[in-house]
Amino acid sequence: MTSPFVIAKTADGKELAFLPALANRHGLITGATGTGKTVTLQVLADNFSRLGVPVFLADVKGDLSGLSAAGSMSPKLRDRLAANGLEEPAWNANPTVFWDVLSHHGFPVRATISDLGPLLLSRLFGLNPTQQGVLAMVFKIADDNGLLLLDLKDLRTMLQYVGDNARQFTTNYGNVSAASVGAIQRALLEIEQQGGEKFFGEPMLDVDDLLQTDRNGHGMVNILAADELIRSPKLYSTFLLWMLSELFEHLPEVGDPEKPTLVFFFDEAHLLFTDAPAALVEKIEQVVRLIRSKGVGVYFVTQSPSDIPDTVLGQLGNRVQHALRAFTPRDQKAVKTAADTLRPNPKLDVGSAITELAVGEALVSLLDAKGSPTVTERAWIVPPASQIGPITDAQRDAIQKQATAIYGHYAQTVDRESAYEKLQARAGAGLPAEGQSAKVGTGSTITDALSSILLGTTGPRGGHHDGLVQSAAKSAARSVGSGLGRAILRGALGSILGGTTTRSRR
Questions:
Q1: Terminal CA-to-CA distance of the chain, rounded, Å?
Q2: DSSP states of 442-478
Q3: How many helices, marked H, and strands, marked E, lie in the chain?
Q4: Is 281 helix (H, G, I), strand (E, B) or coil?
Q5: SS3 200
Q6: Cβ atoms < 10 Å from Cβ of 370
Q7: How far apart are CA 414 and CA 151, in angstroms?
Q8: Distant-in-sequence, close-in-space partners of 134: CB < 8 Å, separation ≥ 6
Q9: How far apart are CA 319 and CA 300, in angstroms?
Q10: Are 84 and 380 a contacting pair, CB within 8 Å?
Q11: Could you count the other beta carbons within 10 Å of the beta carbon of residue 144?
C-alpha cells in the first residue's frame, strides 16, 4: 500500500496524514482569499506527483507555475517553521507541462463541437430551454446527415443551413424557431470574440497525454494557464466540465486502487455551478460520484462550502477549511455552513475557530483507513517542496521546449472536411440536402451507392472513406460506429439523450 503523506501538523505536534488510497473519494479546499488555499493545493500536488500520480489543475492567478521549480528557504519561512514546529521540506521540482486554451502560455487545448454536445454548449451559450431544444435538433440533423461539427464555423454553417431549410425539417424534427436560431448565432459570436474559436477544433486533446510520468516515475503536473481564460468564466467552467467528462468516458474501471490514476483540481469551483441548469448539476453530481471507480480524485477549491451544491458536497470526503471572515449576516451564514459540514471535535469550537485561523492555518478532516472522516483538527499546513510563486517566462519557455517532442503535435491546427466544407460544396454545386436525390442532365438519379463510390462515404460517427475522386487521405475519425445508426455518441456531459455512452478511442 502506498505510504500516507503529512499535509498538516497541530500545535501539540500531531501529524495529519493523507491516505493516497482514499484520494479518489474526492475533496474540498475552502477559505477566504489570501488564507492559504493555493499553498494547500500545492502541497497536495507535490505529494501526488512524488507518488507517481499525474495531476491536472487550473492556474487562475498565475502563481502555480512554481510547481515546476524547487523551493528554497527564506528568512520569513524559517521563522514560520520554527514558530509552528514544522520541518524544512525536501525541496523538489515537479515534472510539468503547461496548457492554455487560448494558446498563449502553453500547448493548445482543443475540443470539437460534436464532442461537447448540445447540453454543455447550451450552458456555454446561456440558452433557454427552447433554444437548447433547437440546438439539440441541429445536432441531430447533423448526425443524421453525416455532417461533422468540429469547430465554430461548422456550427455556424449548420445553424444557417437548418434555419434556411426549416420547413423541410419540421415533419421529422419539429418546428425550428428562426428567433432561436438567431439567438444561438449571437451567442456563438460572443464566444468567438472571447477566444472560443481557439478552443474548438482539432487535434483534440487526448486525455492519455494527461496521464504521463517522467523517467523517475513522478506524475506529470498538468497546469492549465487560466489567468486569461478566467475572464470568460463560462468558457472556463465548460472546458473543465468537458475534460472531466472525457476522463469519465475514457478511463477504465479500476475500483479502489492504492493510489489514484489522476487528481483533478477545480479552482474557482463556484463558477461551475453559477446559473447552471438543474439537469447539468445532476450530471456533474453523477460523474463525480461514478468517476471514483475510474481512480480519479476530484478536488474543488473555492471560498465556501455553500458554493457547492449539496448533492456534490456530499461526495467530498477530504476537507481542508481555511479562514472565513464573518463581517456580514451572509458571511456568518457561510461560516455556519462550513462548520456544519465538518465532523465535530468535542475539544474544538469549529464555528469560532473558522473565523480565528491565521494565514496557513486550517481545520482539517481527512478520511481514515475505513473511509470515515476523522474529527476536525486545527493545524498548520506544511510548506510545499516546490517554489511558492510563479516562475519566469524564460523558465516556462524552457520547460515547454523540453516537452515539445511529446506534446508538440498540438501546436498545429488540423482542419479536415466537416459540415462547413460539405455544405459549402453543396451550395456551390446546387446540390440538395443529404438524403435527397440529385437530377442530372439526362434525368437520371445519382444513387447513394454511386455517390459513395465517387465521393466516398461518412460513417455514423464521422469516419470518412475516400472515393475515387478523393485521393488525398483524410485523418481518421476518432470513433467509428455501426452502419445502422447515425448518432454521434458524446461524453456523459455532452450527450443529446442525457445518458452515459461508451466510445471506442483512437
A1: 33
A2: TS-B--HHHHHHHH-EE-TTS-EE--SS--SPPPPPS
A3: 17, 14
A4: helix
A5: strand
A6: 6
A7: 11
A8: 176, 177, 180, 181, 184
A9: 10
A10: yes
A11: 18
Q: Please provide residue 249's backbone torsions phi and psi, each rounded to the nearest 5 degrees.
A: -75, -30
Give the strand order in the sheet containing 15-18: 15-18, 5-10, 377-381, 361-365, 318-321, 27-30, 296-302, 262-267, 55-59, 221-225, 96-100, 107-108
Instruction: For residue range 146-166, list pLDDT tens digits in order.
Output: 999 999 999 999 999 999 999
User: Grid coordinates representing 466?
Assistant: 475516400
User: Which amino acid makes up residue 239?
Assistant: F
Question: Position 24: which residue type?
Answer: N
Burial group, residue 264, by CB count within 10 angstroms (0-12, 13-18, 19+): buried
| Cis omega (within 30 of 0) for bond into 257 | no
Closest alpha carbon to 233 in 278, 190, 291, 200: 190
Angle between helices 113-125 and 152-164 (to 10 degrees): 80
What tens digit of pLDDT does each residue of 371-416 get?
999 999 999 999 999 999 999 999 999 999 999 988 989 988 899 9
Count of alpha carbons within 13 Å of 431, Cβ hemisphere only? 15
User: Which residues does the chain have with pLDDT short of 50?
Assistant: 434-450, 453-454, 459-464, 468-489, 496-506
Provide the whole-model pTM. 0.83
Residue whose entry in the numeric block shows the C-alpha cell 444557417: 160
CB proximity list for 91: less than 8 A, separation 6 or greater: 70, 71, 72, 385, 386
Cβ distance 387 to 66 under 8 Å? Answer: yes
Q: What is the rounded distance in angstroms from the CA atom of residue 450 to the CA atom of residue 464?
A: 16
* 211 contacts 261 by C-beta, under 8 angstroms: yes
How much is the CA Rg of the chain, to the nearest whole Å? 25
Residue with cell 436560431: 181
269, 302 in Cβ contact below 8 A?
Answer: yes
- Rounded distance between C-alpha atoms, residue 290 and residue 285, angstroms: 9
Residue 23 to residue 299: CA distance in whole angstroms = 9
> Using an 8 Å Cβ cutoff, are 44 and 264 in contact?
no
Collapsed DSSP state (helix, strand, coil) of residue 490 = coil
Q: How many residues does the chain have?
A: 506
Beta-sheet pairing, 361-365 with 318-321:
antiparallel
From the centroid of its chain, how far is CA 463? 26
pLDDT for residue 218: 97
With left for phi above 0 and alpha for psi between -120 and 50, is residue 34 left, alpha or beta? left
Cell digits for 361? 492555518
> Using CA atoms, how far apart are residues 102 and 199, in angstroms rounded to an integer?
7
